[in-house]
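Hi Prof. W.,

I finally got the LysE family translocator prediction working! I wasn't sure whether to trim anything, so I left the full sequence exactly as given:
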Amino acid sequence: MDELITFAPLATFAFVSSITPGPNNIMLTSSGIWFGFRRSIPHMLGITVGFGVLLGICAAGIGALVMAVPSAQTALRVAGSAYLLYLAWQMRNMRFDRKAEQAQQPLSFMGAAAFQFLNPKAWVMAITGGSAFLPQILPTWLAVAVYCLVFCVINLPCISVWAGAGALLRRFLGQPAWRITFCAVMMVLTAYSAIAIWL
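And this is what came out:
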């Protein structure tokens, strides 16, 4: 019972932060549409593993030191927002046919993992989670390991929902009207994510 009380808030935090819209989930929806669910698996795994590493760094206290440096915060915001604006621009002429699919490649495992370190919201979430939900168990390294493991186990199926939703939408986007509407919505959401980094 004590373990349940300890991990329930962490599990809830992991679920809410993983399932709600954000840069990673918007990118996964686009990947599901472009490449289908199976080809998006390395992208999903990269997010979970990369964020798991970031969680460990922040839980160990290093993340707070990084975020305490104003220039580091600015660099993260510039890099993260620039990449998201680039993605938004790429969506302006999205096509969903085999020729277009073959001309593009899904985000790799390493690329998705690296993006977690360019996402200021991921840093803030990792620092907040580490300070509020780190299990009170000893030794400290075990508490950090359990914290990261619980979060990653919950994170992966949550973000998979977004890639799956994109894969389901794929069948409708061969029609020009649906495609234009969807691309416009995704461009706005991605651009908003880039702007929200600065809010």
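The first helix runs from residue 2 to 19. Does that look reasonable to you?

Thanks,
D.
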